[in-house]
Amino acid sequence: MQLTLKNNQLKSLTEFINSLTFNTGSAHIAQARIVTLMTNKYKELDEDRIELVNQYANKDDNGDAVILDNGTADMTEDNHAKFNDEYKELFDSDTVIDLTEHENKVHQLQSALENYNRDLTGDQSLQLVAFLDAIKTKEND
Fold first, then answer.
1. Which helix (H) or strand (E) holds 70?
2. Radius of gyration over every alpha carbon of the chain, rounded to an integer in angstroms
3. Is 111 exposed, middle or buried, given 0-12, 13-18 or 19+ CB atoms closer than 10 A?
4. CB 132 within 8 A of CB 113
5. Which of 12, 15, 27, 103 has the largest CB neighbor count within 10 A?
6. CB 126 within 8 A of CB 120
7. 25-56 vs 7-19: helix axis angle to the nearest 10?
8. Phi (first) and psi of residue 116, to 5 degrees
């Protein structure tokens, strides 16, 4: 079983799933396992982002990327355009999280989310549906 999400959804969905509270221990355990996998995948994505920055940023005397006071990398206009193209491609692509070892936990979390009875904002409801759709899409494959 795999969970396929867009890279640009990964951080917000991870934070959302992690922010939920459940009434049962099994749901909490399932939540922790899935959030850990999602967090690890986001760390990989962030490492890819840092590699892109290092690839296109101007370098200091030590060969490190020059980071401006506003927190952005210093890049030539040409490199900035190339960086933006590759960054967009990276974050618009899919990421796959292998859930094979945690299939039972995924079903527990799915059930807990489908029966979630606490208040959610509109954005949280959209995130809930996006996560459940990603799980259901993989079940139907």
1. none
2. 18
3. middle
4. yes
5. 27
6. no
7. 150
8. -65, 125
Let me know: does 18 contact 31? Beta carbons within 8 Å: yes
The tens-digit pLDDT sequence of the chain (141 residues) is: 888 999 999 999 999 999 999 988 889 999 999 999 999 999 999 999 999 999 999 999 999 999 999 999 999 999 999 999 999 999 999 999 998 898 899 899 999 999 998 999 999 999 999 999 988 765 545
Alpha helices in 57-121 (DSSP H): 77-92, 103-114
Alpha-carbon span 42 to 20, nearest angstrom = 19
Residue type at 86? E
Give the CA-trace dihedral at 110, 111, 112, 117, to 10 degrees: 120
Look up residue 137 and give its amino acid.
T
- The tokens describing 47, both together, are 């490492």
